[in-house]
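Regression test attached.
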Amino acid sequence: MIDLIFLGTGSAVPLSHRNLSGTALLRKGEIFLFDCGEGTQMQFRRAGLKPSKLRYVFISHFHGDHLFGLPGLLTSLQMANLRQVVHLFGPKGIAEYIRFHQDLCNFGFDYVLHIHEIDEHTPATLWQTSEFHIEWQPMQHRLFTLGFALSEAPRPGKFDVQRADALGVPNGPERGKLQNGESVMLANDAQIHPHQVLGPPRAGVKIAYCIDTSPCAGQEQLARNADALIADSTFPASEQVWAHQTGHSTTTDAAEVAKRCGVQQLFLTHFSGTVGPADLPSLVEEARVIFPNAIAATDLARFKILPKL
Amino acid sequence: MIDLIFLGTGSAVPLSHRNLSGTALLRKGEIFLFDCGEGTQMQFRRAGLKPSKLRYVFISHFHGDHLFGLPGLLTSLQMANLRQVVHLFGPKGIAEYIRFHQDLCNFGFDYVLHIHEIDEHTPATLWQTSEFHIEWQPMQHRLFTLGFALSEAPRPGKFDVQRADALGVPNGPERGKLQNGESVMLANDAQIHPHQVLGPPRAGVKIAYCIDTSPCAGQEQLARNADALIADSTFPASEQVWAHQTGHSTTTDAAEVAKRCGVQQLFLTHFSGTVGPADLPSLVEEARVIFPNAIAATDLARFKILPKL
């Protein structure tokens, strides 16, 4: 299970009720932040997220509404005397962006900041642990823009108590070992293997983040079988021509991608300043005609993303 | 009369109830912005200020809590398709800061942005019109830091109706001309000069902005006879040693300057994150022992600054 928290759901210019791009995922106590528009660190705190839990920051592209909150966020971590390791991923140039601010303002980091620059030659898999991996794909925007997906590794299958009873597995530590993928030897010298008592492996959660893009192959690849697709939905369906000209998507673009890619839940976000709060219900309806499980994100809204059953 | 609006009254790290440095003056429909920490453009809108009225921006120094909101503010003016003239004043290096962001994010300005870089050789008077002038002085901080003062030119004296009646000035356009400083000829060929019907010239409003400084000569010069002194008051009196080591002032430092310089009203601001909202009354009391007319600024608080009678 991963918590999805929208920090800012607007684009270009902040509104009184809508901040600039920033989306957090909270997984097993670690925070993944996608984009960092101005004000993201304030929204981060308003959402009750702890700066000390921030581990990964992903910047999609060099437009201010996705970027200009980054220097403040990084210096605030420093001033809070945190000593964590933070991995920052972004387009080539992100290291110089940080260095420029450090030189101008004469600050350093006592925490460990690993900067990972991405260009068109960077392999799709950016980061891999035993529990999850992060991949990127190019988006279709007015400048080099990254989409991201976080995919958990499959989890072991469900423990079949009846089958374990029938095989004579005692109610003890043997069951825990089997659940964790280890074979065990019973008192009667019978060897029991995990596949005998576990159901088929269960899929982990996959979440795709594709903001500032018109429909494109990279988005489809990231969205494939995602449990949650956080999708550019800057404009209503009626403005599709303008949306595509400016490297954006509409409600119905997002819904069509979600439908084609077998997505579980679609989150529309990155709304234009011309979309008021009262417009959101009709925007969601446009998407639901094509893909029923669509939701319009609002600032500080929080969702739990569960794996497929 | 000038409106003084506090946009952010914190320092270093934003709190949920306190934004980073930003202070606006509104004078005859023109806005003067002093410092632009992250989130200033959002606070600007929350205060009901119109971006189209922004004319002058002053950056005191290159610490993020005074600076990192500037790229977002300037790009938002562009995206709003405004066509005004904006004058930006800041330490030498501010032009490169803007240019770096323009190059990285590939944006231009269709409005006119005049950048005025200041170094130790820059004359004290930065800007002069027939109605007001702006001066700067160096502050005492950990890096080159500017304090500012806006001083209105004296206004013509009060029109003395009884004296005008006695001199035979008719109730017509002659009185308006005299009020505006012009001599007039009456029907009986008598010439009347302004000084015959006007009281002594009345002082304009003076407002001094001295943030991120320990007590210093530059601050005293700017604060001299100010109607409002917006003063660094990062720490309570008990932390004076630490305050001065870090280039800051305490409540009592600010009050002593206000007292020595004949200030009308003292506004304490730029509070440390260790100062909670409940601490403000005791901080104000510390200052009032020395200088009774002291107020603790809070975000979005608005004051009218009147000239001396």
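Expected vs. actual: identical. The mean pLDDT of chain B is 96.
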